[in-house]
């Protein structure tokens, strides 16, 4: 691949109609690895009006039919989960995949997802930070004792541990200054969603780097990732309409495909992706509208050679 950035694929996981079958996903995962992509990424949502595939189950399926491609969440709604159970599942996935997991997390979620899951909106930040601290201990330590405001454990172990040492990378999503600060101070990097311009992405990434510097961390050691939906095709208008049909049921009709997505010819797509790399994205997550092998083949063979 011609670019210095890592190029991953966002696995389509939200569907207004029937979701893909396991066979369709399996072929897609194999092809992603065969085409040389760096990583596979999944989204997360507990409640929605459309079909959302569970992210960790989807990555488990991917792990069974691949051996090299990295497996990431972008992002897992960690604050909605019990951190002990999350640590158990994620550590197991890292073990079974031979150390390929990158965990992207956030304290986001829709308002109607918090209360039914027993999570206080008002206390979500403290729960997120405490849960993260506990999970990191469970990933790296034996006989963990932890007493906090939200979680209490005595002399417990989560085994097997992650294969990656000292631990698997944990990156964080969010666009508010507080989220950027947490990404720098508590995380191993930052991931941006599908709604920011290259200029806003670059400004936010520089903030993350500044917060890392202030915290005594090397900013160059942090990951920076960006999601952008992509549809390569000969009919630019049709490509746009297909992306609208895919993204609007998930984000809402206000989602601006024209400005936030890459579609049309390979040159058109590359021209929309490159500015994010220039603004500091080390990993680009390119999101097709369906687990379509022909689409990711076009991305690999036509778009990627145009990136630098």
The main pleated sheet reads as: 8 strands, parallel, barrel
Average pLDDT across residues? Answer: 97
Determine the structural class based on helices, strands and strand pairing: alpha/beta
Give the percentage of residues in beta strands. Answer: 15-25%
Count of helical regions: 11
How far the N terminus sits from the C terminus, by CA atoms, comes to 9 Å
- How many DSSP-defined strands? 13
Helix percent reads 40-55%
List keywords for this structure.
308 residues; alpha/beta; 42% helix
Explain this structure.
This protein has 308 residues and is of the alpha/beta class. Helices cover 42% and strands 19% of the residues. The chain has 11 helices and 13 strands. An 8-stranded parallel β-barrel has the order 1-3-5-6-9-10-11-13, surrounded by 8 helices. Helix 2 packs parallel to helix 3. The mean pLDDT is 97.
Brief summary:
This protein has 308 residues and is an alpha/beta fold.
List the helices and strands and how they pair.
Blueprint: E1 6-10, E2 14-15, H1 22-34, E3 39-42, E4 51-52, H2 55-65, E5 70-73, H3 83-96, E6 101-105, H4 111-114, H5 124-140, E7 144-147, E8 152-156, E9 170-173, H6 177-185, E10 189-192, H7 198-214, E11 223-232, H8 236-251, H9 257-260, E12 262-264, H10 266-278, E13 283-287, H11 293-303
Parallel strand pairs: 1-3, 1-13, 3-5, 5-6, 6-9, 9-10, 10-11, 11-12, 11-13
Antiparallel strand pairs: 2-4, 7-8
